[in-house]
TrEMBL record:
SMART domains: REC, Trans_reg_C. GO terms for biological process: regulation of DNA-templated transcription. It holds the Pfam family Trans_reg_C. Gene3D superfamilies: 3.40.50.2300, 6.10.250.690, Winged helix-like DNA-binding domain superfamily/Winged helix DNA-binding domain. Coiled coil: none annotated. Residues 146-245 bind DNA. The modification 4-aspartylphosphate is found at D72. Keywords: DNA-binding, Phosphoprotein, Two-component regulatory system. This is DNA-binding response regulator. It comes from Edaphobacter dinghuensis. GO terms for molecular function: phosphorelay response regulator activity; transcription cis-regulatory region binding. GO terms for cellular component: cytosol; protein-DNA complex.
Amino acid sequence: MVHEMELTTEAQNEILPTVSLGTILIIEDDPRMQKVLRRIFTEECYVAIVAGDGQTGLDLFRREHPLAVILDLILPNISGRELCQTFKGLSTETPIIVLSAITEVADKVLLLELGADDYVTKPFSPRELTARVQAAIRRQRKPAPPTIYRFADCEVDFKKMTVRRSGRPVVLTAHEFKLLKFFTENAERVLTRDVLLNEVWGYNFYPTTRTVDNQILKLRQKLEPDSANPKHLLTIYGAGYKFVP
């Protein structure tokens, strides 16, 4: 016990960044891994604070309001899964990056459902870990897009998943909403069918790109004044599709 306390104190007194980019909370019960992680983030000009158990991690989270959290799953007192859910309940904007040796897809899906922003498995590359953390921080700093989007005579509320055209409600499926949202986020950009399948449907191996064509046809029928001569969901022959507000 004394040795671990001395190790923690000694590690905390290692070189601190002269200019801090913010505080990273590391919740990890292995003293050697604590030291590795602290050094990684200190060298990237963050202030790294460490908790060796779940309860201490929760206390530090509430007190320090960290920029991001590196979270192990197997912890004393409070499990990583419980902490992940609790953190997101306290602060939805704080990125949580899970660091664990568990690699099962089911665990990854569960953690994402609980609110984790990313998942890195041990052993890991320090460069990959810091890149993932920095990417998660950047995503959280981006201004939230407006939930209501208007074009022509259409008004789309992505949060409520409702559409009105000329004041009248239009019914879209969940996939049609997702496709339309991706188009609005990439307005004026030519998007190939493969890009749409990967980004909207998440297919790794897809049977046919006709899936995209059929979905866009349905959107045109619901949102375009004349679906045979679209003005907003345009076909770019030989390339893909483009949304023009």
